[in-house]
Write a structure and sequence with these properties.
The complex is a heterotrimer of chains A (311), B (370) and C (505).
Chain A: H1 2-5, H2 10-35, H3 43-61, H4 64-88, H5 93-116, E1 131-132, H6 142-146, E2 148-149, H7 151-169, H8 171-181, H9 183-188, H10 193-220, H11 231-241, H12 246-269, H13 275-279, H14 281-292
Antiparallel strand pairs in A: 1-2
Helix pairs in contact in A: 2-7, 2-10, 2-11, 2-12, 3-4, 3-5, 3-10, 3-11, 4-10, 7-8, 11-12, 11-14, 12-14
Chain B: H1 2-9, H2 13-50, H3 54-66, H4 69-94, H5 102-119, H6 125-154, H7 158-178, H8 212-229, H9 231-241, H10 243-248, H11 253-280, H12 291-301, H13 306-330, H14 336-349, H15 351-369
Chain C: E1 3-14, E2 17-28, E3 32-36, H1 43-50, E4 58-63, E5 66-68, H2 73-78, E6 81-84, H3 96-101, H4 115-128, H5 143-156, E7 161-165, H6 173-188, E8 192-197, H7 200-206, E9 209-214, E10 217-223, H8 229-237, E11 255-265, E12 271-281, E13 285-289, H9 296-303, E14 310-316, E15 319-320, H10 326-333, E16 334-337, H11 341-345, H12 352-357, E17 367-368, E18 371-372, H13 374-387, H14 404-417, E19 422-426, H15 434-449, E20 453-457, H16 461-467, E21 470-475, E22 478-484, H17 490-497
Parallel strand pairs in C: 3-8, 3-9, 6-7, 7-8, 13-20, 13-21, 16-19, 19-20
Antiparallel strand pairs in C: 1-2, 1-4, 4-5, 9-10, 11-12, 11-14, 14-15, 17-18, 21-22
Helix pairs in contact in C: 7-8, 14-15
The chains are: A mainly alpha (311), B mainly alpha (370), C alpha/beta (505).
């Protein structure tokens, strides 16, 4: 017990905040998208693409922030592809998302070998390291835990508020939510349903791509095959856990981040649990959460994952 | 004047129906071929960028997949788990249930079969093989139960639960082959070999193809008859077409949904079992990696029809068997086959619009003939 | 009268159909103008084009003599055109005010600041005399209030022309009267109401002029003052219509269905059917009247075994069925024409033959051993298609490629040809043309004459009056009373639909 409690050190909380950030960012994107009535399992793949292109951008330009720009661009492209498939062509959203995920695993691995060859030690690039915030960073304990992260990590947490504000305090949010509830009604009110759906696909995809950039530029400064490692699925689970509310989704992200951090601490302690099991601990938490949280049917956007036919 | 107007406004429903169905038949064949060609072209572009020769690459792919008896056997043996899992996905998809959990189901099926294969000794082969296959089925079904049950009963998202479970089973597999199921005295993270009595006999002596392929083919034929010729098959398809009608027609919708997921999982698990019993004989860490996702491509490419799954399964098996040769010839990383599957799934996922074309064509055709 | 809006030579084609065939029609200021026609005559299509929801293929629209292009609802709204759809375009989880301001420019765009909007809405409420709590969620409002929200929504956007698509279909007679008063007041201020309907009585009661569409073509515009109901009906259909059906008196047989103190809870645990008791005897048609959503759906689902949250007894032919599974109940001999044929009755992508044997797929003679006997099914389907005049070439025809009337005939053929003692028919003629309605009415009457019990659920009072022997009126899950199916009882049915207690001796 004592040993278990000793997990919860400063390092643990630091790691939780850090590990949660990509999940939170991707989950926020998914919240916006699902509020507009679209489900995207492919954010796992988008994250992976984002991670890869961030490294590629940093590698080509020597500037880590250009890596983020690269990630944003691939996010836009993938968002448009996804929108084309599920909004215009009305393909099955789960199948299309899976297609993107598989393509991501294959293509990023293929491209990384084509560009950098097969290397014993993966190539590292310029990353975006921690940035201590003046004054706040000097607060004892809290400063070290909260205010000494990569700017991209801060971004993820800032976006919680931004997304919340947009969804509930602006007419844009009202429009997005109306589309996810009753696209036909939104249409008769003069809202461009197809346009907004495209927009949300692109924006949410950008969120996930930047989440991927956090993984590759802020955590490791390199790209490894399949480095998203199921975080996209955890983001989707966070959205369900958070009942389609950005705050709730962020909380979900934090829980999975904590799961990740516990897992890392336990490995460091050398507990007699096989590492491969520890690695999937956050997944187990996510699974239990998704099965246990039924929630009220009212939180779920009514038109989620239903294709929209404009007559 | 009024009479003429009437003719204009009346739909010729007979003609419409006839043409729609005719075009649908053509498209059923055209869509998978189209998707496959697009995927080959995409990979071709990658080969070209890489500086390889497309012709050399694809001909070496073909040679190492179908060049001689040995390679054909290899292709067929790769096809077995794909056909089995693909069959399960196809059947469930007929009832509009997407089983993305095949990856985990294959693994659990393999684990169960290995356990039975190692720990039961001295049984007659027929009995032992049957028990192992059964264990595989149960393992796969068990893995499918959680997502399937909660989806049918409580409307949880079967897609996300299945995906999470896939990753979890991979972790469990890793733990097992490093721990409890690790071969005694061995170094590599793998189990001991299963008993000789649990191994599937070779189908063509001198090749690697085992009788699993026969079992898979027979099951596909049975699946075809059940789906299209029996009451339960009709109910399954109606459930996929319109679940409310199914409910109003007295079907136990929730029970059927759970049963179908269990069957899908069971078939995938049996596929994993056959791989252990016919080809690998022991459990390894990356056992049948990504086969579950490729089985999704197989089911979609086969247009959710059991016979289509056979063809698509063999095609994908050949791709798996032949990619080694292609990798050498075109200097490609192995991961290109994932690219191919990904593009294929994306192409097929957009096929609904292609299937809308028949209606459009039929309407055009009617207008033109007026 | 001078036309404020003029739709000139409008053509709209859908795949395989011409929905509007060179229609020219004008609407003036200060009038309530009815657009009349049978189902499929093109009324809704025409109005959807005026509101910008559909694009016209040919023709032009003039407003005050100026040619206008209307390509989206937004453009229509900008021109002062509003529309209240038959199926309300409201978002149940949003409040009234959110529904009203959705899609409009707010004062501090993009911030959600309702202060200015609230003032304007209050002004509209005062002007029209409508009364509604604008902070209530729409899902908590009754249907009549939801319609008021729709009207306020249109007025908030500055509508001077209001298109109303069958606005009275969901209302009780009293609510209809209220609506008419509001509309009357509103047009006297120089506004226009375009009223889509197929109810003659309302046309005569409230409208100034009517325009008739028949088979997608324009048939003429007439001032109402010179017309009576019969003449309007003749204009609409093109021949004398008699929806009256000869019914020979039947001896009342023994009780087929007995419902005793039935209470049903819906998905969210509310009692949607409260302590209902009634019987249906062999050889009689019992009608259930009521505005949609007053528990009819839940009542039928409970009888069919589709809802398990119920208390009370249901017996069929003396046998208790309330604990049986849906399949068993079907096999005991209840046939059911469901509320919405396309949603609950048919699998559209499947052939007639498959749809025809549904519910009987396990039973002889269609099942032979493990397999379905397709030869027999085909033969039987062909016979039935002939007997029911289902227009399709072969039983392999996909029902999705058939007209609505023929689809409903497939459902009715299936339910009537099954071995059954009780037929439940829910909205059996909804959305069908007059020919199909006549056919179906005769079939239902035939059932009665064959000594079956028939339970007829409908919102069309005329249909209930002409078919039923007795009529029960449902309101908020309760049976308010029972009356004989006579025209004299129309007004008491109307008041019971609103919750008044009558006829319950």
């Amino acid at each position: 017990m004592e040993q278990f409690l000793s997990i919860f050190t400063e390092d643990f909380f630091y790691a939780t905040i850090r590990m949660a950030s990509p999940i939170i960012l991707a989950a926020l994107g998914e919240v916006i998208l699902e509020r507009a009535g679209i489900f995207n399992l492919g954010i796992e793949g988008v994250m992976l693409f984002g991670a890869f292109f961030a490294v590629l951008g940093s590698f080509l330009t020597g500037n880590a922030w250009m890596g983020v720009v690269f990630a944003l661009l691939i996010g836009v492209v993938l968002g448009l592809v996804y929108a084309l498939a599920v909004v215009t062509i009305r393909s099955n959203q789960a199948v299309t998302g899976t297609g993107i995920n598989i393509l991501a695993i294959g293509l990023t691995s293929l491209l990384s070998r084509m560009i950098w060859g097969v290397q014993a030690v993966p190539l590292t690039v310029k990353g975006i390291g921690p940035l201590k915030i003046p004054f706040l960073g000097d607060i004892p304990v809290i400063g070290a835990v909260v205010f000494n992260h990569s700017p991209l990590v801060y971004l993820a947490y800032i976006m919680i508020g931004v997304v919340y504000f947009i969804l509930y305090r602006t007419s844009w949010g009202l429009k997005i939510r109306s589309i996810g509830e009753q696209p036909k009604a939104a249409d008769t009110m003069g809202i461009n349903v197809i346009g907004w759906k495209y927009g949300m696909c692109v924006i949410s995809s950008m969120f996930s791509a930047v989440a991927g950039a956090i993984l590759s530029l802020s955590f490791m400064n390199l790209f490894v095959d399949n480095m998203s490692g199921g975080r996209g699925y955890m983001a989707v689970a966070s959205v369900i856990l958070g009942q389609w509310n950005p705050m709730g989704a962020a909380l979900g992200g934090l829980i999975f981040g904590a799961g990740n951090a516990i897992q890392m601490r336990l490995q460091a302690f050398g507990v007699p649990i096989p590492s491969s099991l520890l690695l999937v601990l956050p997944m187990v938490i996510a699974l239990i959460v998704v099965l246990a949280v039924r929630g009220s049917a009212s939180a779920r956007p009514s038109a989620l994952a239903k294709p929209y036919y404009k007559e | 004047m009024e009479k003429l107007d009437n003719q204009v406004t009346t739909v010729n429903y007979d003609k419409l129906d006839e043409l729609v169905r005719k075009f649908q038949k053509i498209f059923n064949i055209f869509v998978p071929i189209f998707a496959f060609l697009v995927s080959l072209i995409v990979v071709g572009i990658i080969i070209k960028i890489q500086g390889g020769s497309i012709i050399v690459a694809y001909s070496s792919l073909f040679k190492s997949a179908f060049g001689n008896l040995n390679s054909i056997g290899n292709s067929l043996s790769r096809a077995v788990p794909l056909i089995m899992a693909g069959l399960g996905i196809a059947i469930a998809a007929r009832a509009n249930i997407i089983n993305l959990g095949a990856e985990g189901q294959i693994i659990v099926g393999g684990i169960f079969a290995t356990y039975v294969g190692i720990n039961l000794q001295g049984l007659p082969p027929v009995l032992h093989i049957t028990l192992c296959l059964l264990a595989g089925f149960i393992g796969g079904a068990l893995c499918a139960f959680l997502p399937g049950h909660f989806n049918a009963k409580h409307n949880t998202n079967i897609i996300i639960t299945a995906m999470l479970l896939n990753d979890i089973t991979i972790g469990i597999l890793g733990a097992l082959v490093q721990g409890p199921m690790k071969e005694v005295g061995g170094f590599a993270p793998q189990s001991a070999q299963i008993a000789m009595s649990a191994r599937l006999p070779m189908f063509i002596p001198g090749s690697r193809v085992h009788v699993g392929i026969i079992i898979a083919l027979v099951l596909a034929v049975i699946a075809h008859f059940v789906l299209f010729k029996t009451p339960i098959g009709l109910e399954t398809r109606i459930l996929g077409g319109n679940p409310l009608v199914a409910k109003h027609s007295g079907m136990q919708v929730i029970g059927m949904q759970i049963m179908l997921v269990l069957i899908a999982g069971g078939l995938a698990g049996m596929g994993g079992a056959m791989e252990i019993m016919g080809s690998q004989f022991r459990l390894r860490e990356a056992f049948l990696m990504n086969y579950g996702y490729e089985a999704l491509a197989v089911a979609l490419l086969g247009q959710k029809s059991p016979y289509g799954v056979i063809i698509a399964g063999i095609l994908f098996g050949a791709l798996k068997a032949g990619r080694g040769g292609m990798v050498n010839a075109a200097n490609l990383p192995v991961s290109f086959s994932m690219v191919l599957s990904g593009v294929l799934i994306l192409c097929i996922s957009i096929s609904p619009i292609l299937m809308k074309i028949p209606r459009y064509l039929a309407v055009r055709n009617i207008s033109a003939n007026r | 009268m001078e036309d404020y809006i003029y739709m000139d030579d409008i053509v709209k084609r859908f795949p395989g159909v011409t929905a509007c065939n060179h229609i020219s029609i004008g609407f003036a200021k200060g009038e309530i103008h009815a657009l009349l026609g049978e189902n499929g005559a093109g009324k809704s299509t025409l109005m959807n084009m005026l509101y910008g929801l559909l694009k016209k293929d040919e023709g032009s629209i003039f407003i005050e003599g100026k040619k206008k292009e209307i390509n989206s609802p937004q453009e229509a709204i900008a021109l002062g055109i509003g529309m209240v759809h038959q199926h309300f375009m409201l978002i149940p989880k949003f409040t009234v005010i959110e529904n009203i301001v959705l899609g409009t420019k707010l004062k501090r765009e993009p911030l959600l600041d309702f202060r200015a909007a609230r003032e304007r809405i209050n002004g509209i409420l005062e002007m029209t005399g409508l009364d509604i709590n604008i902070d209530e969620k729409v899902q908590n409002l009754c249907i009549g209030d939801q319609q008021k929200v729709e009207i306020i929504k249109a007025l908030y956007k500055g509508a001077e022309v209001l298109i109303m698509d069958e606005p009275t279909a969901v209302l009780t007679p009293v609510e209809v009267d209220e609506l008419f008063i509001v509309l009357r007041n509103w047009v006297t201020e120089g506004n226009t109401v375009i009223f889509i309907t197929h109810k003659m009585r309302e046309v005569v009661e409230i409208c100034d002029r009517i325009s008739i569409l028949r088979d997608a073509t324009y048939f003429g515009t007439y001032p109402v003052e010179n017309l009576d109901e019969k003449e309007v009906a003749r204009l609409m259909v093109g021949r004398d219509v008699s929806l009256h059906i000869e019914s020979t008196p039947q001896p009342r047989g023994k009780d087929i269905l007995v419902v005793d103190k039935l209470t049903v809870k819906n998905d969210i645990g509310l009692e949607s059917v409260k302590d209902i008791s009634f019987t249906v005897a062999a050889g009689e048609i019992v009608g259930i009247a009521g505005v949609d959503g007053n528990g009819q759906l839940e009542l039928i689902e409970a009888i069919m075994g589709l809802n398990n949250k119920k208390a009370g007894r249901i017996t069929l032919n003396g046998e208790s069925i309330e604990k049986l599974s849906p399949r068993k109940i079907l096999d005991k001999g209840i046939s059911n024409i469901p509320f919405e044929r396309q949603k609950e009755g048919l699998a559209l992508e499947f052939p007639i033959s498959d749809n025809f044997i549904l519910k009987e797929e396990w039973n002889k003679p269609y099942r032979k051993g493990l397999f379905l006997d397709f030869k027999l099914i085909w033969k039987k389907a062909e016979e039935v298609m002939k007997a029911y005049n289902i227009k399709a070439r072969t039983p392999a025809t996909q029902v999705g490629n058939m007209s609505g009337g023929n689809q409903q005939k497939v459902v009715i053929a299936r339910e009537v040809e099954r071995d059954h003692k009780l037929l439940i028919a829910c909205h059996p003629t909804h959305g069908l043309d007059i020919g199909a309605i006549e056919f179906i009415h005769h079939k239902i009457m035939e059932e009665r004459n064959n000594q079956k019990g028939v339970l007829l659920v409908s919102t069309e009072l005329e249909e209930l009056l002409s078919l039923s022997d007795r009529i029960l009126v449902m309101y908020k899950g309760e049976i308010m009373g029972e009356v004989e199916a006579k025209l004299e009882n129309l007004s008491s049915i109307g008041s019971m639909m609103l919750g008044g207690c009558h006829g319950k001796a």
